[in-house]
Amino acid sequence: MTRPQLLIDTDPGVDDALAILMAHAHADVAGLSIAAGNVGLGHTVRNARTLVDLLDAATPVFAGCATPLVRTADEDAAFVHGHDGFGDIGLPEPVAELSAEPAALALLRLTRERPGELTLVALAPLTNLALALRIDPALPERVARLVVMGGAVSGLGNTGRVPAEFNVGFDPEAAHVVFEAFPQFDLVDWEVTLRHAFDEAQFDRWLQAGDRRADFYGRIAGTARAFNHAHARRGVIAADALAMAVAIDPSIVTRSQARAIAVELDGRLTRGATVIDWAGRLGHPARANLVLEVDQSRFAAMARRALGATD
Ligand code: BDR
Ligand code: CA
User: Fold this and answer.
1) In this predicted structure, what is the pLDDT of residue 46?
2) Nearest ligand 1 atom, CA 170
3) Domains of the chain by range and CATH?
4) HEC readout, 111-178
5) Rounded to two decimals, what is the model's pTM?
6) What is the pLDDT of residues 43-66, one digit of tens each?
7) Is the beta carbon of 77 within 6 A of some atom in ligand 1?
8) 274 lines ligand 1 (CB under 6 A)
9) For a pocket test of ligand 1, which of 18, 44, 80, 149 has the largest count of ligand atoms closer than 8 A to its C-beta?
């Protein structure tokens, strides 16, 4: 397999961190464009720079939108990821520089410089991508693939509005813009994430066997793991890492279905829900390739390597 070429939009975030470690272990990363989401933009940008330091990488970091496109978000996810998004463990100020170029413009420039080469991996609310699309609607033509972590395809959400998943629920208008603009994309939703959580004991063994990346990840993941335990969520849930695995190696997908998708933008109870036309009744284009199952052992091997654990 030739080394995948990735451009990552992200709001780090504990599971974003594992995805970014995975990307640097298995692929070349053209840049990290940063959104607000899990926590505020100041923290997500800082966390991205911390990861670049940890990896001793030269990956450029671009700051994006500090708010959703239209409406104020109801909630962030600090109660899962910690107030600083990385478990509140007192990390030092990073040294990696922040690029002066805004994220949406960087997405446009990098895809113009390398038309058809980059896989865009969206691990955050889709605000930066939507803004880039409004500036240049031809963006999808220059991207090799788009992989999105977002949505809850049968309504098992993870936010205060029951059927909404966090990334789509944080900025539903942005998700609508992106889902309407890309003729095809892979969607790794919250529900497939739950079906592919890592076994806790196995994950702890990787953390012990790994290198400085494992040590770092073990420390920042404490708050999120404790939250999941307290809320009876099984295993180590790694939503963004699963999407990253699909971006790096699409052959790990063992079951998927292409379906039409829409985002509920109003809805007294359902704003931010992803509505799937499972039966194809409306005849709308089936733009979303819904990832339903992946090869768990290959996903695990990719995560293990990202943590520097040889097993
Ligand atoms: C998504 O929301 C965030 O909390 C995670 O980082 C992931 O991108 C899961 O719903
Ligand atoms: Ca994320």
Assistant:
1) 98
2) 2
3) 5-307 (3.90.245.10)
4) HHHCCCCCEEEECCCCHHHHHHHHHCCCHHHHCCEEEEECCCCCCCCCCCCCCCCHHHHHCHHHHHHH
5) 0.98
6) 999 999 999 999 999 999 999 999
7) yes
8) no
9) 149
